[in-house]
Amino acid sequence: MAWRQRGTNSLRGLMDNLGSSSSTGGSNSAGGGRGIVGSAGTLLALGALAVGVNASLFNVDGGHRAVMFSRIGGVKSNVYNEGTHFLIPWFESPIVYDVRAKPRNIASLTGTKDLQMVNITLRVLSRPRVEELPRIFKTLGIDYDERVLPSIVNEVLKSVVAQFNASQLITQRERVSRLIREQLVRRASSFDIILDDVSITHIAFSPEFTHAVEAKQIAQQEAQRASYVVDKAKQEKQSIVVKAEGEAKSAEMIGEAIRKNKGFLDLRRIETAREIATIIAASSNKVYMDASTLLMNVNDLTPAQEDKKR
Questions:
Q1: pTM exceeds 0.85, yes or no
Q2: Which among 143, 136, 157 has a CA at the least distance from the CA of 77?
Q3: What is the DSSP letter of 293?
Q4: I need a surface site. Which of 83, 230, 252, 285 has the fewest CB within 10 A?
Q5: Across the chain, what does the average pLDDT equal?
């Protein structure tokens, strides 16, 4: 009986130990589950915070500006410069503008003062006025240049070109360009648009007018050539007349000299012989000539001697 009693006590102690072990294991499992759930919650909270912070920030790149639209108050009057800025997610959204000067070519077909059609291409360098970006967004939107520039360029071109003839558009191009620039700058400023440069890049007339101008230039060149030929003929005629008058005057003077002095012919004969002798002496060839060839025939009587003989 004592042995049975000891066995019963031993079995009861073993059951108590198993029960306590089970209780301890259950407590540890519950604690581990609560730790995993806590870590997951922390990660979710951090993720939600990161998403919220990211949604609350926006960047404005270099050469850009931004205005803010609020679902409650509409477009705000502030202009946001380059950098990172805060906003209220869902309630506010930024509108970013490129404020750098942008080139744009605009072509327009218009008429001149003498009713010639001309196609003019204008290069415009434009940018928005930064301090007026909220008003630009309210009145014109993002594509403000698309809405404004084509219409005012066509209007100004038609107004200015109509003041000049077709030929004046070429000869007075600088003046035409200056008038277009002044009027365009004034018209664009009323829309809060700044024009840094306005220049005429191309002027094209109708084929008929171009052919007419070419024909006129050819006719002018031919007329100038004919005038030159006429002037040349007149000058040649005048030269012949002057030469003939000079020869006649020379002959008259020689005749007068002969009448006054019979030895004039002898003097001229001697001068001519001297010139011939000089030319022959300068030649490399040896030439033998008699006195008659040199006009120095001493055997002939001179006019003065003939007069004395008579």
A1: no
A2: 136
A3: T
A4: 285
A5: 80
